[in-house]
Design goal:
single chain, mainly alpha, about 35% helix
């Protein structure tokens, strides 16, 4: 079984996905072989969405997110 996160891409009038070659080789899949594909969208998690759900915060969500971004930047981009 292959599990991979990939992007939908346009191919002519259709939409396709790209499966990495190493995953194909590992499962020994061949061209023209029938396979079953299960598609599930990934959800993007944003800091402001997390804090926006909590009640009773004294600071606005954008201020908390900006502060967290600044702290992370100072740790990783010196």
């Amino acid at each position: 079984m292959i599990e991979v996160e990939t992007r939908l891409k346009t191919w002519g009038n259709s939409i396709g996905i790209v499966i990495p070659k190493e995953k194909i080789e590992k499962e020994r899949l061949k061209i023209d072989q029938n396979v079953r594909v299960i598609i599930s969208p990934t959800k993007m998690l944003k800091v402001e969405n997390i804090f926006g759900k909590l009640k009773g915060w004294k600071r606005p969500t954008r201020g908390i997110a900006a502060s967290m971004d600044k702290d992370l930047d100072s740790k990783f981009f010196k």
